[in-house]
Amino acid sequence: MIERYREDILTPASVITISLILLAVLALVTAISLALGTADISIKDIFNILMGNTVSDDPLRRIVFRIRLPRIILAGLVGFALSLGGVVFQAILRNPLADPFILGVSSGSAFGAVIAIALGFGFAVGVPVMSFIGALLTIYLVMMIGARNIGVESSTILLTGVIINAFFTAIIMFFISVSANDRLHTMLYWLYGDLSQARYSQLIIILPLVLLASVILYGFSRELNIITTGDENAAQLGVEVGMIKKVTLLIVSLVMGLVVAFSGLIGFVGLIVPHLARMAFRSDHRLLIPVASIGGAIFLIAADTLARTIVSPSELPVGVITAFIGAPFFIILLKKRGSQWT
Amino acid sequence: MNLKKIGYRYEKRWALKGIDLDLKEGEIVGILGPNGSGKSTLLKIMDNVLMPHEGEINIWSKPSHIFTRPAFAREVAMVAQENHFRFSFSALEVVLMGRFPHLKRLQFEGQTDIEIARDALRLTHALDLSGRSIHELSEGEKQRVFIARALAQEPKIILLDEPTSFLDLKFKKEIFRLISNLSKDKGLSVVLVSHDIDLAAHYCHRLIMLKNGTIYAAGAPDEVITASNIEYVYECPVLVDNHPLSGRPRINLV
Predict the structure, then answer these.
(1) Domains observed in chain A
(2) What string of DSSP letters covers B79-117?
(3) Of A74, B63, B93, B144, which has fewest CB within 10 angstroms of its CB?
(4) What's the CA gap between A71 and A56, in Å, rounded?
(5) How much is the ipTM here?
(6) Residues of B with Cβ-Cβ distance to A9 under 8 angstroms
(7) What is the pTM of this model?
(8) In chain A, alpha helices (H)
(9) Considering just the CA atoms, what is the radius of gyration of chain A in Å?
(10) pLDDT in single tens digits along all 342 residues of chain A
(11) A321, exposed or middle or buried, with CB in 10 Å at 0-12, 13-18, 19+?
(12) Residue A166: helix, strand or coil by DSSP?
């Protein structure tokens, strides 16, 4: 008998190699994105500026370091977090269409943020914390509705998301309409995803938290693999299903709260990127988590570069770009789902 | 594994009541009974997935609920009736999931684990499936992969819920022979739920017949498989004779 089997069992070496390649792509995309924009800067200038070969009051240097770099880093971190969140939701809900935005977690989180702003909380702590509470509340709702039986129908989860989205968006619009708060009036733009307000002071909060979350979630990657095969199944194989779900969802809501507070509602990243990662590699979360996360960073940096250059000198909210790509993508997935995922 | 006076209820209705069972090393016990008699519930209780409302279960004289999940999974493996894979994993990856309780957090499967997984696939005649996606396999092929996964767990006890339901005649026989050999050679204890009375009678050392959540009959196959027992429990009249070669009881519909 011919022994036909795949020799390439996942090893730490292959995970590290693939991750390093993607990080190199990320660096390249970052450099290109730094060069693109209303002010024309060549890649050679970028290189010189990054190497410190320019005077400190060089206007190009200021554009790169004050305006473009923080925005690119924020885009990268947000994309990284959204994609990571998508991977975890998809594993726990056993649904490849689960995405923080589609599930309504992002709008739940935005709801928390808007309440915080309406109540006059500060942007440094109050808004992210309320945003986190909003995300947690929504995840709880989704899980409660979705976890009735073990084989949750995709359509139930998606409908739940639609309803939650509609509800929270209505409340947000209500607050924006009745509030005399100037800050709220500028938030319409934020509702479609806005990375233009990036500040180093925010990045210092987001960067360590997102990285820490990804490290902890990576620690659960083998459990997540097994959880995708069903709760009972996972328990039988020795996975502490209840504990893992609680911990991972708590971490994801924390990250989603943070990301939404600083960047608004950016949809579909957590749907598109993990899906492409699964198509290119495999469903093993030990590889999927790094690939999808770094891929998410690359994707959102590219999307945001497009958002700020496509109608230059004006710009679009980045959520418009991701929705343009994501919505058709979602429909295609939904169409072909029957054969593979049910 | 020892079960004492196990009772389990869904809401108010008792699905199981007063179940006693003493599983010995290397023994194959078959659980028979009509649909809804509590067979699968009993298996889930033995697998520590459901907590009984009454009675106690001990494994090596230790109550089963004090085991951590991984520790329990090293003792007991389960082949469930249904498995849903939403995401694509290769058959080998699925079998390697059986190594989970043996590995530390973040530890990757090593050469030994891969050897164990491939041996398990070889035993269930599924080695040639190992590189294929679980989505491409037929129900019977999947069944063999899941049995291989349970073997890769290297448990002392295997619980099987309708292990041969999707298998054709040849693989039915192969799986039962495999179970038989494992119990003989490795002292593996097996509890299996089956609708196939003849096969169960042929390969099991002991049978337990459930009716409405209680044990109606228990003992050696020829004590349990009698025309009157079957007729009462399954509400279907049958003729019982003996297999011409093995002498085990055999049912014939009338």
Answers:
(1) 12-337 (1.10.3470.10)
(2) E-S----SS--BHHHHHHHTTGGGS-TTPPP-HHHHHHH
(3) B63
(4) 20
(5) 0.85
(6) 92, 96, 109, 114
(7) 0.88
(8) 12-35, 43-50, 59-62, 69-92, 105-118, 126-146, 154-178, 182-185, 187-191, 200-219, 221-227, 231-236, 241-263, 269-280, 285-309, 318-341
(9) 20
(10) 333 344 567 888 889 999 999 999 999 999 999 988 877 788 788 878 877 777 777 788 888 888 899 999 999 999 999 999 999 999 988 888 888 888 889 999 999 988 888 887 777 778 888 999 999 999 888 877 766 554 456 677 778 888 888 999 898 888 888 877 666 666 777 778 888 888 898 899 899 999 999 999 999 999 999 999 888 889 889 999 889 998 999 999 889 989 988 888 898 999 999 999 998 888 899 999 999 999 999 999 999 999 999 887 888 889 999 999 998 988 888 777 654 543
(11) buried
(12) helix
With beta carbons under 8 A apart, name residues in chain B contacting A5.
92, 118, 127-128, 130-131
Six-digit token pair at A119? 């109540």
Cβ contact B69–A239 (<8 Å): yes
HSE, side-chain direction, 13 A CA sphere, residue A157: 27
Contacts of A289 (CB under 8 A, 6+ apart): A84, A87, A214, A217, A218, A221
d(CA A200, CA A195): 12
Report which residue type is found at A243: M
* B37 backbone dihedrals φ, ψ, rounded to 5°: -90, -5
Instruction: Dig out the tokens for A66 from the structure.
Output: 């004050």
Note whether A275 contacts B: Cβ–Cβ < 8 A.
no
